Amino acid sequence: MSLLLAAALVFKGAAVLLLARIAWTDFTTQKIANRAVLLLLCLGLGALQFQALQTHSWLEMGISAFGGVALFLALFPFWLLRKIGAGDVKLMSVTPFLIGGGNLAVFSVFLLVFAVATAALVKNPFLLPAGVFRHYVQHMDRKGVVPFGVPISAAAICAIALQMYHAVVVATSSGVLEQLN
Predict the structure, then answer these.
(1) Could you read off the pLDDT of 48-92 as tens digits, one per residue?
(2) Which of 152, 136, 144 shows the shortest CA–CA distance to 99?
(3) Could you tell me the pLDDT band of residue 38, with boundaries at 50, 70 and 90?
(4) Residue 8, C-beta contacts closer than 8 angstroms, at least 6 positions apart
């Protein structure tokens, strides 16, 4: 395993931990801190930088930047209409930097699954465990908003975990193809 790959995996691991914290904070307080989103952006840019140095191609970083800007521009009007929170818009626009442009389709599938699960839990909160249900009902009565940062974070965590698994499997493969040549 190369040093650049190991550094990228460390950055992605730190991003997973930060995403889990963001999901919990968004679930409990319905707020996503700007500091956390900025730190995610730095971790994503760092991991993309290591990947670009390893592959000698900056295409992934360009696709990620285009995806981040496109998501921000697409979601900004929904924030203006008060349909989605500003933290959710910022978190969504940072995720292409975390997962890379080539894995946006995988992230989209995970996001769809977790958004449908979140909608099902909003419609049927009795599916939640008792302590989480009580906490959820207290916040829904007070705020009346759905924490959309939770499915965004969960989808990003799954996409990053899949990337990390693939990178480790490829890096530690037995070299069967080299033996055949």
Answers:
(1) 998 888 888 888 889 999 999 999 999 999 999 988 889 999 999
(2) 152
(3) very high
(4) 46, 47, 50, 51, 54, 167
Phi (first) and psi of residue 57, to 5 degrees? -145, 135
CA pair distance 55, 172, nearest whole angstrom: 18
Q: Supply the mean pLDDT for the chain.
A: 86
| Calpha distance 47→26 (Å, rounded) | 25
What the block records as the tokens of 164 is: 């990390």
- Which residues touch 30 (CB under 8 Å, ≥6 apart)? 85, 139, 143, 145, 147
pTM: 0.86
For the chain, the 3-state helix, strand and coil shares in percent, each to the nearest 5, are 85, 0, 15
